Amino acid sequence: MRFLLLSLALMALSVNAAERPPNIVLLLADDLGYGELGCQGNPEIPTPHIDSIAKNGVRFTQGYVTAAYCSAS
After folding, report:
1. What is the distance between the alpha carbons of residues 34 and 32, in angstroms, rounded to a whole number?
2. For the residues of 45-56, what is the DSSP string, one character each?
3. Strand, helix or coil at 67?
4. 8 within domain boundaries
5. Would you report the helix, strand and coil content of the chain in percent, each value rounded to 5?
6. Does 8 score more than 70 pLDDT?
7. For residues 50 and 47, what is the distance between their CA atoms, to the nearest angstrom?
8. Nearest Cα to 44, choosing from 55, 36, 52?
9. What is the per-residue pLDDT for 17?
10. Domain containing residue 50
11. Does a structural domain hold residue 32?
């Protein structure tokens, strides 16, 4: 009986989780350093919209690019 109730509860949770797709914003910018955004502590360059996204979301601060993703134009 416990197994049946647990199974029904887990199925109900999975139905709710499938209703909203995740909102993912990935910013890639050429020649933008780590410390050039306000959310990274730069007081000189105002970036209020990016700061708002960073404040209300998840920031991945340990990403590395192993090869160039841009080239000279």
Report:
1. 7
2. S--HHHHHHHHH
3. coil
4. no
5. 40, 0, 60
6. yes
7. 6
8. 36
9. 52
10. 23-57
11. yes
HSE at residue 72, side-chain half, CA atoms within 13 A, is: 0
Name the one residue in this structure whose structure tokens are 């890639």: 28
Tokens at residue 29, please? 């910018």
pLDDT in tens, 12-40: 766 655 567 778 888 878 778 888 899 98
* Residue showing tokens 């910013």: 27
- For the chain, the domain total comes to 1
Give the position of tokens 């914003």.
25
Q: Which two tokens stand for residue 42?
A: 């730069």
Q: Is 30 part of any domain?
A: yes
Q: Which residues of 52-62 are buried (b: 16+ CB within 10 A; e: fewer)?
A: eebeeeeeeee
CA-nearest of 24, 25, 49 to 39 is 49
Establish if 17 belongs to a structural domain.
no
Is the Cβ–Cβ distance between 52 and 29 less than 8 Å?
no
Is this structure's pTM higher than 0.70? no
